[in-house]
Amino acid sequence: MTTIPLIGAGALEISLVSRQFLIADMKEAISLLEEHWPVKTGVHYRLALRSCRLALLRNGSSTVAREHLIAACLEAGVSHKAVSTNQIRL
Roughly what angle, to the nearest 10 degrees, separates helices 43-56 and 26-35? Predict the structure, then answer.
């Protein structure tokens, strides 16, 4: 079984308009960036998408991808916060 690398040190909760996303792995991060991201022209957006794809292919660091995703959030004015495994509700 192949495992998908986690998004760095822990999950991120990202809020877009009235929707919240819990991002815990690279597939979720890529899906969010490709399908729901509000501003797809920023430098940090492109870095986040590229580094998440590389981490998914195991050619990049998931920690770096997480940092780029946080930078993309800041660039786009998107609310985000780290979520510990104790806070995740199933």
Answer: 140
